[in-house]
Amino acid sequence: MKILYLPHKYSQQRQREKPAHIYPVLLAMEATYMRDQGHQVYWDELEKIKIAQKVIRDPQGIPFLNLPKPDRNLTKAIEYAYTNGNFKHHPGTYIQAANGCWHGKCSFCVENGKPYEVRPVDDVIDELCELRRMGFQEVFDDSGTFPTGKWLTNFCEKHKWIKSQKPFYLGCNMRMVDVDYRLMKAAGFRMLLFGLESANQETLDRIGKGTQTEDIFYIIKAAKAGLEPHICVIFGYPWETEGEAVRTLKLVHWLLRKGYAKTAQASFYMAKDGCNLEHKKYINKIYNVWHYPNFWFNKIKDIKNTADLKYFWRSIKEGVYGIKGCDTK
Hints:
By secondary structure, the chain is an alpha/beta fold. The chain is built from 10 helices and 11 strands.
């Protein structure tokens, strides 16, 4: 069968609110799988639509653990390697060590209720070694949540040696939990994306987040270990008051001003129980952190090499230090 894959700006997004030019790694894994099954696969070639017997734009749900590593030449990964705000070091690309989220209970999330499937550590390490050989400098793992426990320790111990041979940087989606952040730093991790969601415990309970407000300690712990936390919050919960929305805004500003969070983003709550349109204004207000001198002091203090300086300058041009221009979900 002749299959045409036509990725779009939402193919790797968990929310439809904000399109982003992100390498659709899961779709690429499926395309590689279908190619390996003997099908004629075309990737992002609109002119092939006349001969294609099937057109695919989103992942079809092929069992995750049956999928191979994506053929990044077939799926043109290099075309995504310089456009994404997640990467300080270019070229960059995405992988998925797991599918789903090991918590999997957040009411607003597409990972809710999905089985959590994790690839073997050595399989992920092999893929990262292949990416190094291809010349990629930074990789973001787009699993709903990166594996923790013994899997994480084993992974870090193995990748720590590989990273020591030549600088190579990793990022991932992370829950606010107590892990060895210093070991993650030693293994080459740079940016960790934390879903903070709200500063209000009632909201965290109602959305099934499974965290406590004091768990921001783990964001601080990650920052003190030398990692670069990126935090995500949501505005527009229908049950939150104006004061509660402002409390979340102030927490974001505080984490950014103190340098515990390096970048941040805000989304709007869209679920079956409605939303609070009046609170949509707070999404843009997170950018007002640029008014605070200590925010800039910490940004300048973080500049330690040429890559940091280039990232700092690029981020200023895109928005307030990457907060406005970041493509992270």
